[in-house]
What we know:
The complex is a heterodimer of chains A (454) and B (90).
Chain A: H1 4-16, E1 21-28, H2 38-52, H3 56-67, E2 71-78, H4 81-85, H5 92-109, E3 114-120, H6 127-142, E4 146-154, E5 158-160, H7 161-177, E6 189-193, E7 214-220, H8 223-231, H9 238-267, E8 271-275, H10 288-295, H11 305-323, H12 341-348, H13 354-360, E9 368-374, H14 379-396, E10 400-407, E11 415-417, E12 424-426, H15 436-439, E13 444-445
Parallel strand pairs in A: 1-2, 2-3, 3-4, 4-6, 7-8, 9-10
Antiparallel strand pairs in A: 1-7, 4-5, 5-13, 6-10, 11-12
Chain B: E1 3-11, H1 16-26, E2 30-39, E3 42-50, H2 58-72, E4 74-80, H3 82-88
Antiparallel strand pairs in B: 1-3, 1-4, 2-3
Amino acid sequence: MLNMFEVIETNHMIEHEKLDVRTxxxxxxxxxxxxxxxxAMNRKIYQKITEKxxxxxxxxxxxxxxxxxxxxxxxxSVTPAALVGGCACRTPKDFVSIARTLDRAARDVGVNFxxxxxxxxxxxxxxxxxxxxxxxxEALSVTERVCxxxxxxxxxxxxxxxxxxxxxxxxxxxxxxxxxxxSLGCAKLVVFCNAPDDNPFMxxxxxxxxxxxxxxxxxxSGPGVVKVALEAARGQNFxxxxxTIKKTAFKITRVGQLxxxxxxxxxxxxxxxxxxxxxxxxxxxxxxxxxxxxIGLERVGAPGTTAALAMLNDQVKKGGVxxxxxxxxxSGAFIPVSExxxxxxxxxxxxxxxxxxxxxxxxxxxxxxxxxxxxSTPASTLSGIIADxxxxxxVNQKTTAVRIIPVAGKEVGDSVEFxxxxxxxxxxxxxxxxxxxxxxxxxxxxxxxxxxxx
Amino acid sequence: xxxxxxxxVGKDTVGIIARVCTYLADAQINILDISQTIVQGFFNMMMIxxxxxxxxxxxxxxxxxxxxxxxxxxxxxxxxxxxxxxMHRI
Lengths: 454, 90
């Protein structure tokens, strides 16, 4: 039978160490909503989402109450809109009507974000893909809850450099279109390489075409729990350190697994995966940077940061994998700058640079995330940053992404406030040398040699 | 069996267990196990209860116990047992 110490430990994690389930995300396929008539298609999309997800929020709240564990977000991901909308949308404007429908459906079922305003163009773009991409600046400026992502490369296909080049411009246009909100639109736009089909975390969530009609994916969190556990292991060697992280990751993930199974049962929707990521928030004590500092770095960004992060990421996976029957999504440690107080402090102190962040993305999940740069950064430089990050993903057979915000009207030294979970960020300097001739060559970078495994 | 863990934490005072147990008895909630200790002057209690024959729903009992806790000056929390077993048992 349970003993008191176990009960106290769990409740201490919840009440003092910010243990929570970050998101229950319902993936919904919209492939059966295709219609050559745009209005009819929008109607079908709205009906399908509001029918499938009508109980998502109330069930999430009931589970949180029953187990006494906070479930921070309830969200929806849908089939990439470029695939669904292709048969009716002839222009970027047509696609914007789908964004509005997604936004309305999300608002009416009470979720805070809906992901899947996306295009998968890792090898080439159809006309529909291109129209969707060109509609992103307007779509993100006229909607509140819609998140967009574009997959521009993969280990199997190489990098679509035409798409990389285009995305630099689209990010700039999105920043300009949402200028009065500190270019907030860019915080809802992710450029991926090797995008996973079952990621529950925003802004990059979409419901892949390999998925069932509807599915429940759950993202766990808990950097604060890991940090507190490591405080007890101060001065110990790496063996003890790794064991501590693994045990803690196991416990965190078990809570996610329980919540996922319960949500799946109560909603009558199959359980997909647990994404066992350490997802920070701007709250003090909920930071991945603080874990790295607890491991022994004076500040994140100091020499040794990449090694510490590699170890942390690996141990989180090793502990988490045994705790869940299905693991997927991004699974690892997130290092968003604006959403992590320790990262913000490190950037402000001059300890953490864009180049070091890029190195860190080689060994953890996701990539350059929630980074504010000067609004004057040229589109081609943004494309260069995307290309670098995508190349890391392509060659290392891992997911990488770029969510960068060239804040209109702001320069290095300023800071931007996105609010809520998106946090705030100091504007970081970018290397000012040009890569324009490189990114505008046109065509594709071929798949790397080690992708030919057949 | 529908097992729930009730935790009571707060400043020690006369009659905490009596008040909580009276509420549970009135609601036909059966107590399976109680552990209680005082840590640095703070009262800590954990009860494992069976709500199978409870006359109140989990939600109602949970809210009413929380209110009872406010009256006594302690924090009372109800959670389904699975969150603890899944975390601490393989």
